[in-house]
């Protein structure tokens, strides 16, 4: 088996220690770890510990600056624009979400945008922050250019997720998805597993469908030579590819155009330079539409109706968004998290880089079959 | 050929006259006509004159009440909930959008929801209203249940479009799309053309893919027996069907859950009863993020970059959203609008119903090959 099981506590201890060694204070390290491990706990392997190598490289190459502090550069009672000054995306985004919540408490609705940030983890972490406080949360981010939009072979847009969360019983509605068919992280996971991509996920530098994960990742890392991931809806308008392209545009506009930051195609992957990631965070107090308890009750009823609908296949359950994640969360809190050996190998090299004892943090593990991360090739 | 060409003036005259005969005043008839013809001018055949039969039947059956006036039932400086009292969707929605613009002028952002309305035409008409005034416009609506969500064979959600518009040069960014792979209107158009649906658009009452447009429309009209249109992303999670399902949820929450109205699965198609449609309208003043001219310039630059990207096929142009619609608009304003003969037959029966001289309004036309509208079967 290519996975090693770690308890949540074990991973927490490793991440907290590593991020402090990287230059963050105790509270900051805890915050970053929390975002990262929520992804693994929710079963979103693409955005959990497998992303540690990305942060490692970004800090090592001077792209993420551990001492940077976010700054509010423009503000109204319902909005703000924040300059992240190339800090860690998670810390800037928690700051931005707290600000949006504070403004929504007073104004009922708030829209905060961020520029000059870095990768922020799962978009849904920040909508969860709002949702946990009884609000509707909406968040988005752009990324390095990765999406080949309809009729293009050149990636201009990012994976550009949109996330949305709203309180409900017994689970909140929690939706978080890249506007590409799949996120880049999924290609990384397939590459680590040496598994071919599904047809209709990605194209190569000629604009043709490509199922070789490593080749597509190379195309993405080469920037501008062509090749990337298709929008949700696929390669043609017949199957709605222009719709995924449209949702990606909304994410890009919210994040980059409204923050004055870099659009995905102007993100930077260079030593000493911040990536230029942009995000957006919208917080809405349901009480601007009436009784919030009644609104929550109505959503809960509707979610149950969706789950109880007639099944296409009697043996396949119907889910509402966020349900699988909550089931995964409960299971993994008890049973631990399976980490791919390639990811474990990356964690070992983080130990080497930071002078940590890998046996103490990760145990005696054999990572002989591990694949080398594509992030080694990402920086110019 | 199965199409008859009419000038915009000719169609305007017919629609204005018909809607006044249906019981609307001159200004209201003009408003409804404007929404309807913008769809045809933009090349969105599914939502233009081919939808007249739907409004005809809805008024005839007492579902749309021409004398109803929208009422604000809840309000804050940044929001409102409107009860449409079963009026014509277009009139209620213009009222709601005007209200949202008025609030956004003062507060910077406004979110207005609507319940107890009827079909409102293209969602993008209302975002265009906001965009024409320099704002970002976002709108959504639910509909009768039509979408078979992931793993379900029963339609619970509606076609649930999300529309988004924002000022840019030389064209605004104007995105308007059902969160289903295709809207119901597209099935109506294929049915009128006796053309098979693309595989992956719809399923039948057994939950299997179905390419027979008439059969799927029958399934939809039967309500609750199974069958409907798939979410953008298709039938499986592998191709992102759960994402289209998620976007549809956002539209449903914005429209129905936040207005206190009927979710799509509780819409009514019964003589004497309003459909229960719900909508949402968000208006954002870009100046809450800085200089609106600079924001517009930035979006314009980015849209150009997208259009100028390397093409997958050198002979196939890359578009940004709203560009095709503007090209179509200019062409059709000059050359007129091609109307399917089945739609012309429906317009003739509207003349008969209202006591209008069809030859005067539509000319001497042979509609022998016309298909009968599925709307005759829609009311119980």
Structure description:
The structure is a homodimer of 380-residue chains. Chain A is of the alpha+beta class and 380 residues long. Chain A has 3 domains: 102 residues, Hypothetical Oxidoreductase Yiak, Chain: A, domain 1 (Orthogonal Bundle), CATH 1.10.1530.10; 213 residues, Ribosomal Protein S8, Chain: A, domain 1 (2-Layer Sandwich); 42 residues, Wheat Germ Agglutinin (Isolectin 2), domain 1 (2-Layer Sandwich), CATH 3.30.60. Helices cover 40% and strands 16% of the residues of chain A. Chain A has 12 helices and 13 strands. In chain A, α1 packs antiparallel against α2, α4 packs parallel to α5 and α6 crosses α7. The mean pLDDT of chain A is 95. Chains A and B meet through β4, β9, α8 and α9 of A and β4, β9, α8 and α9 of B.
- Could you name the CATH homologous superfamily of the largest domain in chain A? Malate/L-lactate/L-sulpholactate dehydrogenase, NADPH binding domain
Oligomer: homodimer
| Chain pair sharing the greatest interface | A-B, 81 and 80 residues
Q: What is the general shape of chain A?
A: globular
Assign the CATH topology of the largest domain in chain A. Ribosomal Protein S8, Chain: A, domain 1
Number of helices of chain A: 12
**Number of separate domains of chain A:** 3
What's the SSE pattern of chain A?
A: EHHHEEHEHEEEEEHEHEHEHHEHH
Counting helices, strands and paired strands, the structural category of chain A is alpha+beta
Question: Strands of the biggest beta sheet of chain A: in what spatial order?
Answer: 2-3-4-12-5-8-9
């Amino acid at each position: 088996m290519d996975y090693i099981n770690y308890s949540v506590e074990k991973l927490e201890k490793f991440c907290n220690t590593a991020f402090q060694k990287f230059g963050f204070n105790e509270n900051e390290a805890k915050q970053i770890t929390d975002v990262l491990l929520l992804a693994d706990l929710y079963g979103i392997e693409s955005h959990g510990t497998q992303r540690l190598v990305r942060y490692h490289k970004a800090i090592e190459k001077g792209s993420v600056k551990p001492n940077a502090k976010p700054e509010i550069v423009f503000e109204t009672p319902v909005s703000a624009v924040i300059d992240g000054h190339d800090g860690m995306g998670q810390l800037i985004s928690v700051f931005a979400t707290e600000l949006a919540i504070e403004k929504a408490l007073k104004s009922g609705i708030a829209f905060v945008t961020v520029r000059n940030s870095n990768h922020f983890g799962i978009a849904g972490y920040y909508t969860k922050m709002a949702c946990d406080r009884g609000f509707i949360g909406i968040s988005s981010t752009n990324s390095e250019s990765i999406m080949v939009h309809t009729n293009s072979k050149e990636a201009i847009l990012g994976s550009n997720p949109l996330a949305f969360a709203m309180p409900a019983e017994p689970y909140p509605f929690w939706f978080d998805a890249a506007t590409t068919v799949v996120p880049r992280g999924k290609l990384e996971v397939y590459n680590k597993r040496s598994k071919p991509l599904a047809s209709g996920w990605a194209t190569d530098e000629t604009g043709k469908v490509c199922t070789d994960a490593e080749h597509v990742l190379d195309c993405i890392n080469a920037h501008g030579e062509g090749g990337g991931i298709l929008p949700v809806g696929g390669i043609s308008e017949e199957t709605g590819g222009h719709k995924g392209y449209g949702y990606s545009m909304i994410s890009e506009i919210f994040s980059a155009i409204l923050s004055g930051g870099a659009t995905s195609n102007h993100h930077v992957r260079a030593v000493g330079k911040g990536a230029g990631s942009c995000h957006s965070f919208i917080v809405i107090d349901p009480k601007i539409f009436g009784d919030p308890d009644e609104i929550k009750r109505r959503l809960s009823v509707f979610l149950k109706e969706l789950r109880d609908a007639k099944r296409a296949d009697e043996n396949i359950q119907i889910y509402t968004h966020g349900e699988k994640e909550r089931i995964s969360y409960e299971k993994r809190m008890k049973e631990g998290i399976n980490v791919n050996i390639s990811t474990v190998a990356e964690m070992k090299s983080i130990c080497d880089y930071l002078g940590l004892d890998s046996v103490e943090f990760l145990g005696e593990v054999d990572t002989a079959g591990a694949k080398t991360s594509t992030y080694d090739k990402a920086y110019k």
